[in-house]
Amino acid sequence: MLLAVLTDLHANREAVEACLAHAKERAADQYAFLGDLVGYGADPGWVIDTVMAYVNRGAYVLMGNHDLGVLQDDRKDMNPTARFVVEWTRQNLNEVQTNFIRELPMQFELDQCLFVHANAWAPERWEYVDGAMEAARSMRATNAQITFCGHVHTPSLYHMNHAGKVATFTPSPDVSVPLSKLRRWLAQPGSVGQPRDGNPAACYALFDTQQLELTFFRVPYDTETASQKVLAAGLPASLAHRLIHGA
C-alpha cells in the first residue's frame, strides 16, 4: 500500500488541495492525517469537510493540539496568536465539523507503524520531538518499528540502531529512503499548511508499506491566495507573512 502521510494542515485550503492532488498523481492508495487540521489558516471548515470525505473512504486521522483547542475553554498553554485563531476557528465551524474533531483519537497503529501528532511517550501532552534526544525518547516509548508524527513544522527523519544510538537524517525531496528493519525510525513529514524551514512549499510524505520506503515531497502552491485569505479573515498578519516566507 502506498500511504500518503499529511500533518499540520492548519486550515490552508490551497496547500491541502495541492498536496492531495500531488499524492493522487502518484497513485496513493490511502491517506493518514496526523492532526492540526485547523488553526492559523482561513479555511477550517473546508479542510475538515475534505478530511471527513477521505475518512469515509477509509483514511486515518488524528487529533492535534489546535484541534483540541477548538473544544476547550481553557487554552493557557497556547500563545496569544494561536488562542486568537482557535477562538475564530470555533466560531467558523458548524456542529458536524466540531463533533468530528471531538471524536478524533490521539494515536493509531498500522502494521509495524505508530502514528501520533506530537510524540509517542505522552501524545496528549503535545511535547515536541525537535532533536535526537526527544526522538530517542519517543522511539523507546513504543514497540513500533516506525513512528510517524507531526507537530514540528519541518521535515526530519531519525533512526536508532540496536545499541540505542540515534542519528538524524535530513531527507531530500523526491528521493526514496529505504527504512531498514535493522533500525527503528521516526519520521516527521513536515507541515502541509504552514512550513517553517524557510521554504514555503507544502510538505508531505508517501510511505510504501510493502517495500518500507519513504519519500518526502515539497509541493509549491498558491501562497499568495492563502495569505490574502488570512488577512481578509481578520487573522494576524504574521500568519500571512509566514505562508509567503515559510518561516
Automatic annotation (TrEMBL):
Coiled coil: none annotated. One of its GO terms (cellular component) is cytoplasm. CDD domains: MPP_superfamily. GO terms for molecular function: phosphatase activity. Gene3D superfamilies: 3.60.21.10. Pfam families: Metallophos_2. This is Metallophosphoesterase family protein.
